[in-house]
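REQUEST FORM: STRUCTURE PREDICTION
Request ID: SP-0412
Submitted by: Lab K.M.
Chain count: 1
Length (residues): 178
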Amino acid sequence: MLRRFLDRLYLGAGALAALFIVGICVLMVGQSIFRELGLRTGAINDIVSWFCAAAAFFAMAHAFKHGDFVRVTLILEKVSPGIRRRFEIISLFIASTATSYLCWWACKFTYESWEFNDIAQGLLPLPLWIPQMSFALGSILLFIAVVDEFIFVIQGNKPTFVTAVEERHAKGDFSSEV
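STATUS: Completed
RESULT:
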């Protein structure tokens, strides 16, 4: 039941990232049309930049779990399965530590923006904690995904990101390798 919840959480985060990308497209096309009509579009640049950040941070957990995150496998492909497993556990431990640090500071940064009532300096005077929430929530989701994977691998399972890539390769899809 927990596995199903976490998988849906990662999928939902990926879908949310995709919606932000669609939002970027709509805003940019709309901005082009508005400019041709002589209408002001200055604040759209602020919103697009916040949407870019939100898309990136919400996509991280989904990309990590599906093997689309950048990984250096040159060494791992050349070693025995036992050594590879140890390297993966060590790497996931380091990643868990690093993402916990990122998560802590992203949440602290967002909280301080709320606490001090920071306002965006662009054309849209929005409280900064609102767009910064994507940074905090995306970091939390990535931390959960990395720790989830760490526990999964410690239990003796093959990493899901490796399995996902192998399944794509078995279907003849090598697009992530390009």
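NOTES: Helices lie at 2-36, 42-65, 81-115, 129-154, 160-170.
Reviewed by: T.R.
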